[in-house]
Write a structure and sequence with these properties.
- The chain is α+β, with helices and mostly antiparallel strands.
- The protein folds into 4 domains: 55-292, Beta-Lactamase, CATH 3.30.450; 350-452, Beta-Lactamase (2-Layer Sandwich); 460-547; 558-711, Histidine kinase-like ATPase, C-terminal domain (Heat Shock Protein 90, 2-Layer Sandwich).
- 48% of the residues lie in helices and 22% in strands.
- It contains 17 helices and 23 strands.
- Strands 1, 2, 3, 4, 5 and 6 form a 6-stranded antiparallel β-sheet that branches. Strands 8-7-11-10-9 form a 5-stranded antiparallel β-sheet.
- The longest helix has 82 residues, at 10-91.
């Protein structure tokens, strides 16, 4: 059947495309310009904020460095004066303790930044100063300042790392100088303990903001003082805090610099300015919190971005309104043509044969496909409305009459029937129809759809015939396989039974040799005879178990209700009695009852529980869990233990006759237990599976059909 494409006015479509393109281009250019200006302005103000913060931090660090340098200079002058006084007294015949202590006390009072000014002898024993008891012999020979003064004559002024003083019990930065005996040898140290609290108050005198910081460090990055004082100050004062940027600045031997880092005591990111204390190996580090000095910029950036977003939204909405109005105008000119074309396409170019029958059974519409299906033209159906019913096959006329009656009382209805074409060919039709109502709810007839399904009906008939033939062939082949399997099973049963006689003879002769001729055999002969006897016994057991396995497939089944929980408890009690010296625990999860052969189910559960008891021998407490549940049409049961488990690579061997996944001799058994389980489950129409992990345990699960449980009178 031929088709046609919907024809839209090409000029209008092209005009629409170009209008949208130009409008979008203008929108993009305007917004790009505005966003560019906003970005440039924000970047400029951001750079100014960064520079302002850096300049402020540099000025503050410079101010602090100058102040601290002045303090240290005054302390150094005091130390030099004290050293001169000590050396003068030594040169005059010896130290006047009272005079020297009064001198040191006067010097100490002049410097509020220190809380002690003392001397040590050449061995590090604190000898003079306020609060010094010579009898106590306070030893400071291990202090950094003494070690450096004692072993480096040229060191001069030493500013040691902060210590917690032994006499005053306070944090201090020791500043020291040496003094010498009249012969020029090392005589001891004069040291001043600079109060860390004083340094902190000096740093706190400047305004670095609520989240800013100021600290004093030495060249090793040890913290001498910091503000704000951290909550764990005792763990911070005197400790190193690795700051790569500061370390690089000090290594480059620069007197000043700046950097941004979050490697801080409190983890706050700051912009830092560093200033070296002139003449001393100390550095003032002033930091301003990034989120503080950028707060105003962020506020400005947020407002600017919001305005830019509003501008973008306004341009977008304006463009959309312009486009919508223009589109409505264009759509108004195309709607009529489009709807007409759509109706024409849907109505006349459908593959199925469709028609519209009016309330009075007049034919209002007939699709052109009617001629392809029936051989009659559209005009003939429109001219003669009853023609559509006259071409129905005579044998289906009654069915179609019933359908017409049914369709009069339903919104939709369907039926399959045959028609006789103009050329006499019979075709199958799938017919469906539904009521048609106007916008005011008025009944306007029925819309019908007829589809030619002749090929499908013929294919279904062919499939039915093939299925019947296939079922017959499968039944025949199944009967052949069952007969062959029965012959194999009968043969195996006969062979196993016949093996008993020669095996008994071997066992009997072996027993005679043991009883009557054992004395004439050497130790190796007796050992070999024992091996023969043991293997005949084992082979006899294997034959018994094989016969039992084969009997499972031969005995008739007696189905009935089976209380699984009760049966499990009985078997477990029996097994517990056979191993009274072992600790066994049964976790019974109330498995549901089943419908099956009670004798076989008991053998199945006995095999599973026996295995669980056997393979939990290494455990001090053997835990065996039994449970089950109904899953749709299946009843699922499981037996789980905490035994030695098995390697899942060998799971396929578990349910095969005489197959073992553990070495012979490690555990007793012949390897038929799980094979019997599989056969019993199979005869009940179920399946069995296993999961395990070495040295963790194993779980054997089996499912049985639950569809016959309704026959269980206990349900």
């Amino acid at each position: 059947m031929s088709g046609s494409a919907i024809a839209y006015p090409a000029k209008s479509a092209t005009s629409s495309v170009w209008f949208v393109r130009w409008m979008m281009a203008g929108l993009v250019l305007i917004n790009l310009f505005v966003f560019g200006m906003v970005t440039f302005s924000l970047y400029q103000s951001y750079d100014e904020s960064q520079q302002g913060a850096e300049l402020t931090a540099q000025n503050l660090s410079s101010l602090l460095a100058q102040h601290i340098a002045g303090d240290i200079d005054r302390i150094d002058l005091t130390l030099l004066a004290a050293a001169d006084e000590v050396e003068r007294q030594l040169a005059g015949g010896g130290i006047d303790r009272q005079a020297l202590n009064r001198f040191l006390e006067r010097q100490q009072r002049r410097l509020p930044e220190i809380f002690s000014l003392r001397t040590t002898d050449a061995h590090g024993i604190v000898s003079h100063g306020v609060g010094v008891n010579p009898a106590a012999r306070q030893d400071n020979s291990d202090r950094e300042y003494f070690v450096r003064q004692r072993y480096d004559p040229k060191v001069g002024l030493v500013i040691a790392r902060p210590v917690y003083t032994r006499l005053d019990k306070r944090w201090a930065v020791p500043v020291s100088r040496p003094f010498h005996l009249p012969d020029g040898t090392f005589g001891g140290v004069i040291y001043a303990n600079v109060s860390v609290d004083h340094l902190i108050s000096t740093l706190a005198a400047i305004d670095v903001g609520r989240r800013g910081s100021a600290s004093l460090r030495n060249a090793e990055l040890r913290i001498f003082a910091r503000t704000p004082v951290p909550a764990h100050a005792d763990k911070v004062i005197g400790e190193k805090l690795a700051v790569p940027e500061l370390q690089e600045l000090i290594r480059s031997d620069r007197d000043a610099g700046s950097y941004i880092s979050s490697h801080t005591v409190d983890g706050v990111e700051r912009k830092f300015a560093v200033r070296k204390v002139t003449g001393f190996p100390l550095y003032v580090v002033v930091g301003r919190a990034t989120d503080e000095y950028l707060a105003q910029w962020k506020d400005q950036a947020t407002k600017t971005a919001l305005l830019a977003a509003l501008f973008f939204l306004a341009t977008l909405v304006s463009s959309w309104l312009i486009y919508r109005n223009w589109k409505h105008q264009l759509a108004a000119t195309l709607d009529l043509a489009r709807e007409e074309e759509k109706f024409h396409t849907v109505a006349d170019y459908t593959y199925d044969w469709e028609y519209w029958e009016g309330p009075a059974r007049e034919m209002l519409y007939m699709s052109p496909s009617c001629e392809r299906v029936t051989g009659y033209s559209r005009a003939e159906f429109l001219a003669e409305p009853d023609l559509i019913y006259r071409i129905i096959h005579p044998d289906d006329q009654h069915q179609m009459a019933g359908h017409r009656t049914d369709a009069a009382h339903r919104d939709d209805a369907g039926v399959d029937f045959r028609i006789v074409r103009r050329d006499g060919e019979i075709r199958w039709i799938a017919h469906g129809c539904s009521a048609v109502f106007g916008r005011d709810g008025q009944f306007m007839g029925r819309r019908a759809n007829n589809r030619d399904i002749t090929e499908r009906v013929q294919a279904e008939a062919t499939v039915r015939q093939l299925n019947a033939e296939l079922e017959q062939r499968v039944a025949s082949r199944t009967a052949q396989l069952e007969a062959a399997n029965k012959e194999i099973e009968d043969f195996s049963y006969s062979i196993s039974h016949d093996l008993r006689t020669p095996l008994r003879a071997i066992a009997g002769f072996a027993q005679i040799l043991v009883e009557e001729h054992a004395a004439s055999l050497d130790s190796e002969g007796r050992r070999l005879l024992d091996v023969v006897h043991a293997n005949t016994v084992r082979m006899g057991r294997l034959i018994d178990e094989l016969l039992e396995f084969l009997r499972l497939g031969r005995r008739p089944m007696d189905f009935g209700p089976v209380d699984v929980a009760q049966l499990v408890q009985e078997i477990f009690d029996e097994l517990q009695a056979t191993v009274p010296d072992r600790k066994l625990r049964l976790d019974l999860k109330t498995p549901p009852p089943l419908w099956g052969d009670r004798t076989m189910i008991r053998r199945l559960l006995s095999n599973l529980l026996s295995n669980a008891v056997k393979f939990t021998q290494p455990r001090a407490l053997a835990v065996i869990e039994v449970g089950g549940r109904i899953e749709g049409n299946l009843a699922r049961y499981y037996v789980k233990d905490n035994g030695v488990g098995f390697d899942m690579r060998y799971v396929d061997k578990l349910f095969q006759v005489f197959e073992r996944v553990h070495p012979v001799g490690q555990f007793e058994g012949s390897g038929t237990g799980l094979a019997m389980v599989k056969r019993i489950v199979g005869r009940h129409g179920g399946s069995v599976s296993a999961e395990g992990q070495v040295d963790v345990g194993a779980t054997i699960s089996f499912t049985l059909p639950a569809r016959e449980m309704e026959n269980d009178p206990t349900q």
